[in-house]
Amino acid sequence: MLPNKVNIIEVGARDGLQNEKSVTLADKVRLIDRLSLSGLSHIEAGSFVSPKWVPQMADSAQVFASIQQQADIVYSALTPNLAGLERAIASGVKQVAIFGSASESFSQKNINCSISESLERFESVIALAKQHNIAVRGYLSCTMVCPYEGIIEPKQTASIAKQLFAMGCYEISLGDTVGKGTPNRVSAMLEELLTQLPKEALAMHFHDTYGQALANIYQGLLMGISTIDSAVAGLGGCPYAKGASGNVATEDVLYLCDNLGIETGVDLEAINLAGWEICRALDKQPVSKVALAMGDCRV
Question: Can you tell me the mean pLDDT for 233-256?
Answer without folding.
Answer: 78
